[in-house]
Design goal:
Elements: H1 2-25, E1 31-35, E2 41-46, E3 50-55, E4 60-66, E5 93-94, E6 119-125, E7 131-138, H2 141-144, E8 151-159, E9 163-171, E10 177-179, E11 181-183, E12 186-188, E13 196-198, E14 204-207, E15 213-216, E16 221-222, E17 227-231, E18 238-242, E19 247-254, E20 258-263, H3 265-270, E21 283-290, E22 296-298, E23 303-313
Antiparallel strand pairs: 1-2, 2-3, 3-4, 5-11, 6-7, 7-8, 8-9, 9-23, 10-22, 11-21, 12-21, 13-16, 13-18, 14-15, 14-17, 17-20, 18-19, 19-23, 20-21
Length: 315
C-alpha cells in the first residue's frame, strides 16, 4: 500500500510539473510540454518546417522530422525511460568524459549529464518560424561524487529546416578543468550495410575495436562490421549517405576537433539490453565531439561552445 501511495504521489508531482512548464513555456499550436515515455517531461515542437521532441532527461533530442521527409533520428524501441538511465538513441550529450572514465571504471559511461533531468530555461520562436529551446544543468553534490569541478552547461537547440545545437560549458569554479564532450547523434538509416560516411578521407583515427590503434581512413567509411572510430584533428563537415532512404545527412561542426563514427554491429548489439538484436541495422552514429587529445581545458570563468548543424542535402 505504501508503495502504491508513493507511486501516486510521484505521478501527481510529475503532472504538476508539466502544468507549470506549460504555463511558462508553451506556445499554442507550436510548443507543448507533455508527459513522455516513463512519465518524463518532453518538449514537443510542431512547425511547418519540422516536428521535434526533446526530453528534459539529458536535454536529449529524440526526434527531428523535417517536413516531407523520413524521421532523421534513430530511437530504440527497447530504451530505458527512467531517472539515472540513458535513453538509447536520439542525440545524447556526453560530458565530462567519453566512453568509460579512465581513472574510475565504476563511473557512468559517457559522463553523468545524459542521465539527469535538465532545467528548461526558455522557448522562443524566430521570425522565419524556427523554434529555439534552451536547457541547462550545473554541478552539484551528485556530479562532484564523480568529478570534483564546478561547471554549468547550456544546450541551445534551434529546430527548423536544419537542426542546430550549441553546447556551452562554463568553468564556474576557482580551479582549471578539462573535459571531453560529444553530441552522440544516432542517425536513422534504412540499412546500415548500404550506408557510408563521406568527408573523412585521409584523416587519422583511433580504432577502438582494435585496441585504439592509430590508422588512416582511405575513401568513404562503410559499415561492414563493428566500428568505433575517433577521427582526430578534423573540423570538416561529414555526410552520411543512405541510398536506401535516398538521402544524405550532413553534419557541420564548429569548435569540434574530433568526429566519432560508431555502429555496434550484431555482436555488439547483442550485449546491449536497451538495443534490439536487429536495431543496429537501422542506425549509424556520426558525432561532433572533442575527445582524447582534443579534450577542452578551461580556466576559471572561461567557457567553450561546441556547435553542430544537421541538414538533409538535396540529391
Amino acid at each position: 500500500m505504501a508503495h502504491c501511495s508513493t507511486r501516486i504521489l510521484f505521478v501527481i508531482e510529475d503532472l504538476s510539473l508539466i502544468v507549470t512548464l506549460n504555463r511558462r513555456f508553451a506556445i499554442p499550436g507550436t510548443v507543448q510540454i507533455v508527459s513522455g515515455k516513463g512519465g518524463l517531461p518532453k518538449v514537443r515542437i510542431t512547425t511547418s518546417a519540422a516536428s521535434a521532441a526533446i526530453y528534459l532527461h539529458g536535454a536529449q533530442m529524440t526526434s527531428w522530422h523535417p517536413a516531407g521527409t523520413e524521421e532523421v533520428l534513430f530511437l530504440s524501441e527497447h530504451s530505458n525511460w527512467q531517472d539515472g538511465r540513458a535513453i538509447r538513441g536520439g542525440i545524447p550529450i556526453c560530458f565530462p568524459w567519453f566512453r568509460s572514465k579512465s581513472d574510475d571504471p565504476k563511473a557512468p559511461a559517457h559522463g553523468f549529464v545524459r542521465t539527469r533531468e535538465w532545467q528548461l530555461d526558455s522557448v522562443t520562436t524566430e521570425p522565419e518560424g524556427s523554434v529555439i529551446v534552451v536547457c541547462s544543468t550545473q554541478s552539484d553534490d551528485s556530479t562532484r561524487r564523480w568529478w570534483p569541478h564546478e561547471f554549468s552547461l547550456e544546450h541551445r537547440i534551434t529546430i527548423g529546416k536544419t537542426l542546430r545545437m550549441e553546447l556551452t560549458a562554463t568553468n564556474t569554479g576557482s580551479t582549471p578543468l578539462r573535459f571531453e564532450e560529444a553530441m552522440h547523434t544516432y542517425f536513422r538509416v534504412r540499412n546500415a550495410k548500404t550506408a557510408r560516411v563521406r568527408g573523412l578521407d585521409q584523416v587519422a583515427y583511433f580504432d577502438n575495436t582494435d585496441g585504439n590503434r592509430e590508422k588512416v581512413q582511405r575513401g568513404d567509411i562503410v559499415f561492414a562490421a563493428a566500428i568505433d572510430n575517433a577521427y582526430i584533428d578534423t573540423c570538416s563537415a561529414v555526410e552520411l549517405i543512405d541510398p536506401a532512404f535516398r538521402r544524405t545527412l550532413r553534419t557541420e561542426k564548429e569548435n569540434s576537433a574530433t568526429t566519432i563514427v560508431w555502429n555496434p554491429w550484431q555482436q555488439g548489439a547483442a550485449s546491449l539490453s536497451d538495443l534490439g538484436d536487429d536495431e543496429w541495422q537501422q542506425m549509424a552514429c556520426v558525432e561532433a565531439s572533442n575527445i582524447l587529445s582534443s579534450a577542452v581545458s578551461l580556466a576559471p570563468g572561461q567557457q567553450h561552445t561546441m556547435r553542430a548543424t544537421l541538414s538533409i542535402v538535396a540529391e
